[in-house]
Amino acid sequence: MTTAQFDCQYCTASLLGKKYVLKNDNPYCVSCYDRIFSNYCKECKEPIKSDSKDLCYKGRNWHEACFNCAKCNHSLVEKPFAAKDERLLCSECYSNECSSKCFHCKKTIMPGSRKMEFKGNYWHETCFVCEHCRQPIGTKPLISKESGNYCVPCFEKEFAHYCSFCKKVITSGGITFRDQPWHRECFLCSGCRKELCEEEFMSRDDYPFCLDCYNHLYAKKCAACTKPITGLRGAKFICFQDRQWHSECFNCGKCSVSLVGEGFLTQNKEIFCHKCGSGLDTDI
Question: Which domain holds residue 143?
Answer without folding.
Answer: 115-159
